[in-house]
Each structure stands twice: as structure tokens, then as C-alpha cells.
Amino acid sequence: MGIEKRFGVHPSAAAAWMARFGIGNPPGEVHAVRHVELLLHAGEVVGLVGESGCGKSTLGRIAAGIAPPSEGEIRYGGENVLTMDRAGRRAFELGVQMVFQNPFASLNPRIRVGDAIGEAPRVHGIVAKAELDDCVAGLMQRVGLDPSYRHRFPHQFSGGQRQRIVIARALGVRPKVLVCDEAVAALDVSVQAQVLNLFMDLRRDMGLAYLFISHNLAVVERIADRVLIMYLGRIVEAAPARELFIRPAHPYTRALLDEVPSLDGGSRTYVPIKGELPSPMNPPGGCAFHPRCPHAMPVCATESPQPKTVAPGHWSACHLNS
Ligand code: SF4
Fold this sequence. Notes:
- By secondary structure, the protein is α/β, with parallel strands linked by helices.
- The protein has two domains: 42-224, P-loop containing nucleotide triphosphate hydrolases (Rossmann fold); 241-261 and 270-322, no CATH class.
- 32% of the residues lie in helices and 18% in strands.
- The strands form three sheets. It has an eight-stranded mixed β-sheet, sandwiched between helices.
- A hairpin with a 2-residue loop joins β11 (308-311) and β12 (314-316).
- α5 (113-123) packs across α6 and α5 runs parallel beside α7 (159-171).
- The protein is globular, with a radius of gyration of 21 Å.
- The protein starts with a strand and ends in a 6-residue tail after the last strand.
């Protein structure tokens, strides 16, 4: 079974008052993630792409163990995380770390960056107290920061440097997987490229695997081995990255590709996807993309398309692929 995630939606005060008198809709539920199966191999980079509100951040938080799924299993090293013993659970919690979009919000402004980076290795007993200074210096060097800046506070760094601090802090617990949620979205284009290079250096040197969540296919194209395209809580297409960018099979993927801005600042044709992302509280029936799809047929409004293999390692959920 795949991962499911539902959220209860609390009604506003006005809606709650109206509900007491039987007016308006009953309180709803958001089905944020639907039947998602996600496999991440050691050392692999998987890009997870979709528009804002499609459920990709929720899926990332579930993968990182920050949010529990409503149904389905998270397995780490082949074992179900929920039934692991204490040692296994600790290995999962340290082994999968998350890097968020806003590094300033991830750092305590009153804690010196050296202390922030050294906290987790100290608390978890990963390094002895006598070796902590060397450990922090090594982590800062590893991410391209001068260790002599360790006594500074987060506000004394640029946005790119702050993201490097967050990455150094994550590396302190010797993870095997980084879940990066829009981790370069807040950075200037040139700084984005530098941080992406850092991610790839870490992968090469430490064998890290990444679940790289982004709304930007240009960013994912640079680093992913495999790409998953998400729409309204479902994965609608999955393929090796090169294959997906050359031969996208799903109309939604093709629409996203029409929007790709280039990382070097040049511009490509910009064709916005027609219409708004529907509310996940009230998703369209059949194929959820049908109200916006230029190829929609009558069957698309009534029948949900099942995933079909279109090439080795490449599948798409669209009636056109039947
Ligand atoms: Fe478009 Fe129909 Fe394919 Fe959905 S199933 S993407 S509506 S053609």
C-alpha cells in the first residue's frame, strides 16, 4: 500500500456558527497525499516536482519522519520505522535529515553558528567533547565556510552562507539521506548553482541520497537521477531524469516543462498552465488534471487513469498512454 495523508480542516468561526444551524458545508478533510509509493536507493537523487500546494512538502515531511502518514509504511534499510526497536528508530531519525527553504527560520538567531552546528553531534554522543571543536571546524570547511566564523551569529551571514550552515548542521549527525524542501528556492540564481554544486560534492564524497523537492524543473534537471511529478497529492509521472526531460509523457509534465526558466538567466518560452490548481479539499473527479488539460477527453472526467509503463523505468498516469 502507498502512503496516504489526510488532514482534518478546522472550520472558521463563522462556518462553525453556521454549521450549528445546519447552514453551509460540513467540516472537510484535505487528502494531501494519495497512494504514493516512493523508493530512494542509497546514493540516489530523486527530484519531486509539482506546483505549490500539490502535497510534495507534506510527502517530504513524512519521508523525513517529521509527520506521520495516515496510512502506509515508511521503511528505512528495509525495516518498517513504526515497528523498529529503539536503536533502529534512532538510526532512522539521525540518518534522514531535512533542509528547508528558509535557512534564517531554521537557525536560532541568538545561538552562535558553531554552537548550532555542534549541538546535535554533542547531544547524540557522536563526538567526544574534546573533539567537538575539530568536528565543527571540519563541518564548516566541508560546506565551504571559514571555521573562524564559528563565533558569529546567523544574521552576520548571507542567505547562501546561512543555507551552508544549515547543511553543516544536518551533516553533523552523519546522515545517509537529505530531504531538501525548496532548499535553493530563496537564493539568487548564482548562489543556487553554488549550493547545488555543494549538494553534488557531498553526494560524491559521502554517498548521500537526496529527496529533492522543488517547483522548479530547471533545478531538478541539474541534479536528479530520477524525477517524480506530483499533482494534487498523486504522482502522475515518474522517469529517469534524462528520459523525462526528453520525452515527457504526461500533459501536466509537458505543461511544467514549458515553464522552465534557465539557470544561467536566459529565458525560454513561458507558457503558464491554464487554470488554477484545484482545492485539495474538493479535487475534480476522474483525472484531477482534466479541468486544465488541453487534451482532456470525456473519459478523463469520470475515470482516474492508472499508471502505465511507457519506457523502461518510465511510467505515466494518463488515458493518452493507454
Ligand atoms: Fe489530460 Fe486526460 Fe491525460 Fe488527464 S488523463 S492528463 S485529462 S489526457
